Amino acid sequence: xxxxxxxxxxxxxxxxxxxxxxxxxxxxxxxxxxxxxxxxxxxxxxxxxxxxxxxxxxxxxxxxxxxx
Length: 68
What we know:
Number of strands: 2
Shape: globular
Number of domains: 1
InterPro entries: DUF3046
Protein name: DUF3046 domain-containing protein
Order of helices and strands: HHEEHH
Pfam family, one: DUF3046
Radius of gyration: 11 Å
Organism: Corynebacterium anserum
Largest sheet: 2 strands, antiparallel
């Protein structure tokens, strides 16, 4: 997954402002760090996205994003 796709999924699920806030403040349960720090550390974006979805109970049918 590329960063642009990750950002599109976050914005699509949480909205632009809330998605930015989540990425910088929410500590992912599975990793013990924020999304932004994990990305900086090189953690696979798909894994970060899945952990974010798990923490916020995003239903499976929405984890691939909205149909374009």
